[in-house]
Batch of 2 targets.
Target 1
Amino acid sequence: MTISQTPAKLLPAGVQTGRKGQDTMYKIRLKALAKINLGLDVLRRREDGYHEVKMVMQTISLYDELEIKKTKQPGIQVRTNLYYLPTNENNLVYKAAKLLTEEFQIRDGIAIQLQKKIPVAAGMAGGSSDAAAVLWGMNQMYELGLSRKALMERGVRLGADVPYCILRGTALAEGIGEKLTGLPAMPKCYLLIAKPGISVSTKFVYENLHANELRPKQHPDVDSMIEALRAGDLELLSSRMGNVLEEVTVPAYPVIDQIKKCMKDEGALGAMMSGSGPTVFGIFDTQGKARKAYHAVKAGQLARQVYLTVPYNVRRQKFEK
Ligand code: ATP
């Protein structure tokens, strides 16, 4: 077992480009990185059905790979290694390509090859990150000149997490997830990611969160998590983590608690469900402990997809707020 996809290999999204003749870029290879939520609070449900949230987001070095190519055959074609994923307009990469081809009247055909590694429907923003990569990649390929802000404005039309997947790193997400503030980078650590072989519908989780409206919720203290990030204190950060959605998902799927317990027994500083689940992540201060936990989760057959990885941080000019 090796640490999956070490950050050294991770350059900003477009890593290899193909050029025909002098100048025209005809293909681009990209990495779409997953996220975890170090903190997730739901403040209220808006009249339009969206939820107002307060989340601490962290990009991790686990990614899908995409190749975007210009083709003579018109239209958008999507291919993926997972037979059960849609390849039509229901795939977020298709939607992202369509948005830009329509707006900029791009007449070429576009072929997108998507190699999924990020667990699907798992609370890791896999689809959103793929969409973000397509926006970023097509902006490069066609020299559209869109700023990061302009890409993020387009991204939110595809999904609330897409702007964050364009920004990346450690960030506070508010509003429906699209109001972003950069935060100090998560301190160096090792992350164990475990996705049990169950599917959890995000709709089910949010509906049941509201069904429990009368019960007082355990709201995570997101502000104190931000203080821990400012202090660069991994232990404090791990002890302050909280996800209000666990209240719904954990009782329905006890395996989530089993995975958390297994990781903590093996020395995790903290272990929590990401997003609406069912993926669990554990934070470790040494690679040795993280490896032992990896083997324990595997041996206990608690999860099908298990990855050892690290946070992915970006340099920011300044930290606001
Ligand atoms: P989030 O953390 O934002 O809630 P998620 O991890 O729960 O995301 P995704 O893996 O992004 O969920 O995808 C959920 C559903 O979206 C899948 O069931 C799938 O059918 C559909 N989908 C569309 N495009 C993609 C894509 N590129 N990758 C994965 N799923 C996709």
Target 2
Amino acid sequence: IGGHTTTATADRRRRVLFFPLPYQGHINPMFQLAGLLHLRGFSVTVFHTDFNAPDKSRHPAYDFVPVPVRGCLPKGSSDALQVTVERILAVNRACEAPFRERLASLLAREDVACLVADAHLLTLLDVARGLGVPTLVLRTGSAACLRMFAAFPALCDKGYQPAQESQLETPVTELPPYRVRDLPSTTSACHGVISEVISRLVTAVTTSSGLILNTMDALECGELASLRRDFGVPVFDIGPLHMLSPAASSSLLLQDRGCLEWLDAQAPASVLYVSFGSLASMSAAELVETAWGIANSGYTFLWVLRPGLVRGSQTSEAAPPLPDGFDAATRGRGMVVSWAPQEEVLAHPAVGAFWTHCGWNSTLESLCAGVPVIARPCFGDQMGNARYVDHVWRTGLTLDGVLERGEVEAAVAALMAPGEPGDGLRRRARELESSAADCMTKDGSSCTNVDKLVDHILTL
Ligand code: UDP
């Protein structure tokens, strides 16, 4: 034990600092990256806000530095996109002074190699650079999305955004396969704040000493090449982080692991998994259509009914109520949980298809598990991810327009039933699963890039 400790101490003189944006889809990849770099011998300090704070007890080897933001964040509203982007700006403002003070005091004690911060935290990256700390950026979305963000001001100048309803199907000829409807939804009053958040993100990347992306060459070869050409900073595509990293779960909500046992009792590829991630929401009427669409399909399902999923519900603490008669109609062929261990669920052989909102982590997790999807994006980068799923990777079908039970039923059947289109979607999903696995072999692109990233950090 003594020898082991000595080696560990010698290896761990250099410390990498991490600062995730406090949302589930950003916290997970940041902790996975921390796990990967910890495995390579770096010490880890995680700065985090007291809003959506991580559970320290799951990461006993890391140091944690809380930064207070509570009371400085805008309250929730019915527009999830607007409140999310406003909170991103508020987190930057609220953290600036306390982060500077905490970082300066840490620098007096520790040998810091660099800060890896979420691409949304430009102000904090600037603070670190001001104190002489090299910075790397983790962008938790796809390479395609980042390329679109970089082009966003020019696309707005050309009149693609803010968009009228009649423009939605127009192809964005400068950026195939995007259509206007796949760009961040800026038909609303929040076009200004979205543009600001996007432009800050691109600045955060271009002023950093390197960009880390949770994606891989096999999925986004052309998009990555274009970022390498246009951004002028080293780009490390090291995904899928959830499969390469030894990180413990960083789930903010308690995952109901009972559903894994329930899945054990189901036939292979027989279960539809339904989850809309941590932020997407729906109206009470859409919940009813979703429920009856799933019930009427006749397929077995596992549904994550997250508290707060329904807009305007009385309480965000309790799961929204299901329509009368739903339990009786689906008895014996369904399970509803409030939060699931999603990576394990998607990797379970009983899961045959995934109805998702197409957050980037969910998209990547489904691709790496070879599971075809029904894509129903809500906002932000989700429409672009759905477009790639539907049109480029062809591992899923998009369910758009007004949510209606008959359409849901048809989409579920299209994916789950034998024959086309389900067979083709399943085949391509399995092909991509295998390409993703190739990226993760010792000489694969992602593993090679992790080596390059470690070398790069040591030269900073
Ligand atoms: N997730 C989970 N349990 C669930 C639903 C989601 O652990 O029941 C995880 C999922 O594995 C993913 C993250 O939450 O890593 C959601 O990120 P994503 O980018 O898909 O969507 P977001 O929540 O940011 O919209």
